[in-house]
Amino acid sequence: MKFFIDSADIAAIREIKAMGMCDGVTTNPSLMAKEGRTDTDAVLKEICTIVQGPVSGEVTALEAAGMISEGKRIARIDDHMVVKVPTTYEGLKAMAALAAEGISVNATLVFSVNQALLVAKTGADYVSPFVGRLDDVGEDGMALIGDIVEVYDNYDYETEIIVASVRHPMHVVDSALLGAHIATIPPSVIPKLVAHPLTDKGLAAFMADWKKLQGKQNG
Length: 219
Ligand code: G3P
Description:
globular; binds SN-glycerol-3-phosphate; alpha/beta; single chain; eight-stranded parallel barrel; about 55% helix
């Protein structure tokens, strides 16, 4: 299973990459705005240099023609760039055109099986269903992932599923159990994946016993 980091925070990406937990990065206009840097192409280039894996940068045009020219510009930033395109009617046109030119596409803002099916037919490399936002409105985000896994398996689609809008460790567990190819995880969730009270308790006991032993040696 691949872990992408859902962030444009250079320091966080660098730290998580060094731990071996960052196979790629996904950004969006909101994540870019959070970092406050207006030189967004330079940010994406810096991220590509650190990650050396797929890095998604999102188009902001709403019409297909604009998305296509913006997507081509984003793809030129670095060989690792993936063009993130919203899954609208216009977006599908742009996805198909960009994919036909060999540009890697990540279809974003996916909330239904039909959207994911259409995305696969465009030849996009990645589909990003947003599980947290579905949970927010009382729908079952992870059930959507299970359905997309099944449909893609039925037809051997090669589009990889990126579980997005991940909010907590159970989203990562469920993604792995369902066989999703990738989870894109906010930096704040990574420490939560390793934390366990029994690990802390066990370590504290080991350290206390070790200290006692040292005391005996010295005494
Ligand atoms: O990967 C998509 C993600 O950035 C959206 O997350 O938490 O804003 O729904 P969230």
